[in-house]
Amino acid sequence: MIGTTLFGASYSVYVRIVRLVLAELGIAYALSEVDIFAKDGVPVDYLERHPFGRIPAFEHDGFRLFETDAIVFYLVEHFGGEALLASEAQMRARMRQIMRIMDNYAYRALVWGIYVEETEHARSGRLAPDELERAAQCLRVLDDLSGPAFFVGAQCTLADLWVFPMLAYLRLAPSGAVLLRGHQNLVAWLERMDDRPSVQATRFPAERTGAVPTQS
Question: What pTM was estimated for this model as a whole?
Fold first, then answer.
C-alpha cells in the first residue's frame, strides 16, 4: 500500500491521538474505519495488521506498525516532528510521564469509568464514590502537572495530544463536566486546545452529534 493509512475507528481515543499527530505535522493520510466491536467481531483481514485485534494500526509506503506509541514516534522521527517533543531532558521525561499517566490510570478512570458508564450504561448520577474519586485523583494530578500554556513548556507536545482525547470524552459526561469545573487550569487548557485546527479536524462523532459510540 502506497501512502499513509491509519486503520481504526473515529470514536477511539488512541486513533485520535495518532490523527492529532498526523494533523499537527500536516501529513495527508487515509482513515480506514475498523470497528473491532462489530457484531461479527474483529474483521479477519484486520488481524493480519494487528494480531491482538486492537486499534489503531498503520501503514506508510508498505511499512506496517501497530501500537500508538510506535506509530507516533515513527511519525515524529520520519516526518521531522521534533517540535512535538519537549526540548530538554527533564521536560521530555515529564512529557512521557504524563503520557503514561493517561495510559495507565486516566484512560480507564475517565473514559470507561465516567464517560462510558454515564452515557452508554445510563448511570448518570449513579456512580459510586470510588469511581468518582479515581477520576478526581487523575484530574488533581493533571492539574498539578499542567503548565501556564501547555502541559510541558510553551508549545504543544505529545503530552497535550495524549491528554486531550480523554478529557474531551470526560467533559461530555455529566459527572465529568462537574469534576472538571473544579480544575480551572484544565478547563482553560481545554479551551486553548479546542482552537487548534488539529483538534477541530479530528472531533469524535459524539462531539459533533451528541451520539454515543459503541465503545471507546
Answer: 0.93
